[in-house]
Amino acid sequence: MREEWGSRAGFILATIGAAVGLGNIWRFAYIAGENGGAVFLFVYLLFVALIGLPLVIAELALGRRGASDAVAAFAASAAGSLWRHAGWIGVVAAVAILSYYAVVAGWALRYFAGALTGALWREAGAGYGAFFEGFIAGSAEPMLYQAVMLALAALVVAAGVKGGIERINLWIMPLLAAIVCGLAIHALLLPGSARGVGFLFTPDWSALGRPALYLNALGQAFFSLGVGMAVFVTYGGYLGSQTGIPRSAATVVIGDTAFALVAGLAVFPAVFALGGDPAAGPRLAFITFPQILLDMPAGRIVGTVFFLLLSAAALTSMISLLEVAVAVLVARTGWSRPRATAIVAAALFLLGMPSALGYGTLRGWTLAGQPLLDAIDHLVSNFLLPLSGLCIALFVGWRLRAAEAVSAADLAGSAVAPAWLWLLRIGAPLTILVILLRSAGLF
Ligand code: PHE
Q: Which of 288, 297, 295, 294 is nearest to 268 (CA)?
């Protein structure tokens, strides 16, 4: 029998759990930092509302309509055309992301473990730069933590949609919301925090002239929402008809955005108050921030809670990505869920090894001059996800009949239906194409 969510709240929390992850804390903070803060935020919010939200609605609608895994959901609506294979793009994107995402999640877990035992605060000797570089340059340790995170995600997924995924999100997500709010309040009370708030909310409009801003904002919108990875198609497949899609999608999108903003308020005021560099890149969360914690009132407690937040948020996202692949495998092979989960998790561990070793043993292997993990993250977020989003928009916008699409999305008779369809058919695809071609240097 087909699995289903146990309650609307469970579905919403699990879906927010998929959306909220390293992207909201680790990635959002450094991408916003590198791209000028407030101006980035403005463009980002625009993309979230006009491209992200319509796509989340489209993915959920497609998934519920197919009532199966991501690949079958596309195939069901496109028999006999090439479109029937389109679901694979999202599945490939999900696997590609999870391969390196598990590595970064492992870093978060390593820091959390160190903070808990107190060892992390004694490692600061030569600064966290040296500590972090030393840690990721090792081979055994990063792989060990990567494996632990994958194993945790696999345990949850193996326990099923309702008994595993829904259950864990029901208690982790409220906890995360409380933690991130507490951290933000603490940061805002630091003397000098106003500059960090200003950085996030005072725009320097001249930055709008930089093309990289748009590509990065688009990539971040896709990554942070989790759009284009078949996650919402898969989660939509477990959704009953009584849950309204537009309202659920809006809740998820608003929840994800609010989480990124509050996390930004937890990081930037602290960075400015204690003299860090907001444009420190991917190292912001692992080098700049721990350094700051040492001088912050109650910094060790804040740090322990922060890395718990980072690890748990990463876990709920890993669960959703793993579920995409497991659902496809179970449907195609007839294997049991635990067996399929174990096999996918083991394969992901192997696939992620080059990313885990890219700063140490495999330092010589670079792509476009970057370490493997950084290069794969950039390629997947800025190109594969937008392309996959483009396919979903075109599929739901053009391949399905308008009336079918609108009713699948619970928008029949609604005043926003024409706007939604227009965004899927023209607005979103055109914006995505223009940004991609522009950043490929084609005009
Ligand atoms: N959205 C998650 C984050 O912000 C990552 C993710 C990507 C989750 C894709 C699911 C699908 O970290």
A: 288
Domains of the chain by start residue, with CATH: 8-439 (1.20.1740)
- Residue 294, token pair as written in the block: 């040492």
Q: CA 62, 66, 69: angle at the middle one, nearest 5?
A: 95
The two tokens of residue 312 are 């748990």
In the beta sheet, which residues pair with residue 371? 366
Q: CB burial class (10 A; 0-12, 13-18, 19+) of residue 141?
A: middle
Residue 415 CB-density burial (10 A; 0-12 exposed, 13-18 middle, 19+ buried): exposed
CA of 20 from ligand 1 middle (Å) equals 7
Find tokens 């497609």 and name the residue. 62
**Can you give the pLDDT at residue 197?**
86
Ligand 1 test: best mutation among 28, 101, 315, most atoms within 8 Å of CB? 101
Given this model, what pLDDT does residue 258 score? 96
Taking the C-alpha atoms of residue 377 and residue 11, their distance in angstroms, rounded to an integer, is 28
For residues 247 and 410, what is the distance between their CA atoms, to the nearest angstrom? Answer: 10
Q: Of ligand 1's atoms, which has the minimum distance to the CA of residue 224? A: 4
Which residue has a Cα nearest atom 9 of ligand 1? Answer: 226
In angstroms, what is the C-alpha Rg of the chain? 21
DSSP letters, 372-413, are HHHHHHHHIIIIIHHHHHHHHHHIIIIIS-HHHHHHHTT-TT
3-class DSSP state for residue 3?
coil
The pTM assigned to this predicted structure is: 0.92
Residue nearest to atom 6 of ligand 1 (CA): 226
The pLDDT of residue 91 is 94
Q: Ligand 1: which residues within 6 Å by Cβ?
A: 18-19, 21-24, 97, 223-224, 226, 229, 231, 317, 320-321
Name the stretches of the chain with pLDDT < 70: 1, 280, 442-443
Residue located via tokens 């090439």? 82
Eight-state DSSP code of residue 247: H
Tens of pLDDT, residues 246-296: 999 999 999 999 999 999 898 888 887 777 777 767 777 888 788 888 877
Q: Are 371 and 358 in contact (CB under 8 A)?
A: yes
